[in-house]
Design brief:
With 134 residues, the protein is mainly β. The protein has one domain (23-40, 48-128): HesB-like domain (Hypothetical Protein Aq_1857, Chain: A, Sandwich). The protein has helices at residues 27-40, 96-99, and strands at residues 23-25, 47-54, 60-67, 73-78, 87-92, 102-108, 113-118, 124-125, 131-133.
Length: 134
């Protein structure tokens, strides 16, 4: 007589909740990024690179531009429901500590025009807003 134990079938598990992207773009920033991609004919294999680098009057400054994916990048998509498709964002994983929760906005006014970073990790910012300390 053979006795074999059967294991109960595990209950199906749901996928873990999706984490929010480490960096967000405001509607104005999203519109401006899409305008730049169209006007400059940025190739499809390029994404929006968001990062930091040493320098500036507060110690670190922001990096924003178009680039190909690199080995240590975290890749995520923003505005995925747009008819033109998502905006692919590349960020060096090591920069996540400094950028987590950051919102990139775009201002176009009489006194200033450009991308502005609202970074909850910044403990100090310079007067022009282009550099920060964390």
């Amino acid at each position: 007589m053979s006795t074999t134990a059967t294991s109960p079938t595990p209950a199906p598990t749901s996928a873990p909740p999706a984490l929010p992207p480490p960096v967000r773009l405001s509607d104005r920033a999203t519109t401006e990024v899409r305008r730049i991609v169209a006007n400059k004919q940025i190739p499809a294999q390029f994404g929006l690179r968001v990062g930091v680098k040493g320098g500036g009057c507060s110690g670190m400054s922001y990096v924003l531009g178009f680039d190909k994916q690199r080995e240590h990048d975290l890749t995520f998509e923003l505005d995925a429901d747009h008819e033109a498709g998502p905006i692919t964002v590349f960020m060096d994983k090591r920069h996540g500590l400094y950028l987590m929760g950051t919102t990139v906005d775009y201002h176009d006014g009489l006194d200033a025009r450009g991308f502005v970073f609202d970074n909850p990790q910044a403990t100090q910012t310079c007067g022009c807003g282009s550099s920060f300390a964390a």
